[in-house]
Amino acid sequence: MRAISCIFALILAVVWPSWALGAEEDTGRWESAVAARGIDPAGVIYPFGATPEMQEWARQQMEGAGPAGPLKQLKILQRSLFDRENFEFEYDGFLTLSAEDAFAQRRGNCMAFTALFIAMARSLGIPAVLVSVQKVPDVQRIDGLVVVNRHVVAGYRGANELNLFDFYVTSSAPTIHQRIISDVRASAMHHTNRGGLALREGDLIEARRHFELSVLLAPEWAPGWVNLGVVEYREGRTAQALNAYAKALEAEPSNSSALTNIAGIHRDQGHDEAARSALAAAARQTRNPFTLIAMADIEMHNGNLGKARSYLRRARWWFSSEPEVYMAMARLARVEGDDKGVTRHLARAAKLREAE
Fold this sequence. Notes:
Shape: globular
Number of domains: 2
Radius of gyration: 22 Å
Largest sheet: 5 strands, mixed
Mean pLDDT: 80
Number of strands: 7
CATH class of the largest domain: Alpha Beta
Oligomer: single chain
Structural class: alpha/beta
Helix content: 55-70%
CATH topology of the largest domain: C8orf32 fold
Order of helices and strands: EHHHEHEHEEEEHHHHHHHHHH
């Protein structure tokens, strides 16, 4: 099991950008910033470009609106994008596209849809931005990878507040706080998500290309390093993988994905105590059920059933609908000789799987 950060939102301390009046100025500033990092902008995804067709579509939505300030125009644009008779869009949770591609294909995930909204807003002369919102992340296990999905929204700074436009309609967790994302870091996010898709499809070459671009664009951002470490380890470069995870921890000392993956390497190499220490550090920080389950399994193996129970209680509290939590609770009940508990937990896991 390796943890990969499939990031739809990043918790970053970002200075509010200085905006020019039009989308062309935004693009020019982005190109200069990318080039300053020694990267050819032609090889980097710019999430917020708008074609003439997109600009015309956005302009048409404003017809008949009468006098309208920026906030009213954004609300009109939001309604128009959600009107399936006017704009049919297919949600695909793993497909991160630029605004231009999302408009052409009429599909993508919440990040693609948000990029589309921002691009059209900017084409109207409204300086919309990408905003990360910190919520309890959605965590899934897919083909041996633990995928941590976080969340982004569009933002517009009015006179007294930051107005948010949320397009991830299935998100129900409360917002803890939000931060502005610069366009360059938005590009890093897009490359990270593209790399994550390539990794799940088994294309390590394409995944590496995207992750290496991501860490060049945002070297102080932990998720890019975590994902690059996954590729390094899958290609048999253990030292390079550990170095990538170390870079992630330099950027974010409490990053549970990096700690979990370090634990996995130590466990594969037979360094059980080092693995336990890294995993315990991850479990102290995480709301990832699979890290908590792994730590509970280690404690069960070592006979520390009380500690195992504590980890699983936390996992059930935060992720009561995850079947594997109850599978782990069944393992603990079996060790404790609680046959009724085994049956109860297995039945609960089976019921949750049927509902998926």
